[in-house]
Amino acid sequence: MKLYKIYSLIIIAIIFSCSNSDNEFVPIEEGPIDEDPIEDSNSILNLPATAFNYTNINFPTSFNSFVMDVLDNTPSDNLTTDAGATLGRVLFYDKNMSVNNTIACASCHIQSGGFSDNRTLSEGFEGGFTGRNSMGLANSRFYESGLFFWDHRAATLEDQVLMPIQDAVEMGMTLEDLVTKLSAFEFKRC
Fold first, then answer.
1. How confident is the model over 23-54, as pLDDT tens digits?
2. Residue-range domains of the chain with CATH
3. Quick one: which of 96, 148, 179, 184 has the fewest CB in 10 Å?
4. Which pTM was predicted?
């Protein structure tokens, strides 16, 4: 089992161990996302009371069988779940994902810009600049090449998600430190 799967399982286990049985995930229609990442670092991650619906999406009719069967690069051993994708959405906007709690994934992957930014170079957690600007993430599940980053250094979306977290300029964390940091958090249903 790859390292990222182990960390994903740990994080999901933490969430389910902190929730009470009266507050189970139930899919609901997806609501709007706050464009701004969380402003203040704290020790609480606010999860919605019910998971958003990511497994039963009504795709447009233009997403024909070629798109769904050939271009869909979701690995068969890591299928999308409502609980996992909802957690990913919360963490995407959380500045606690960076070593000094100053930058979230959403700081550079801005929703209104196709989850990219309009800067020439993206800014990291200590004000340093990356070698390129943020690649757009909209519809990344269906990237024809299945490769991520401008230089295609990530072979899967799972690899792409972990690389910026561990990058010395972008977010500056190690996966071990991130698991330790998130394990200390209280997970609150809102």
1. 333 333 344 444 444 444 456 677 888 899 99
2. 3-29+37-55+64-189 (1.10.760.10)
3. 184
4. 0.75
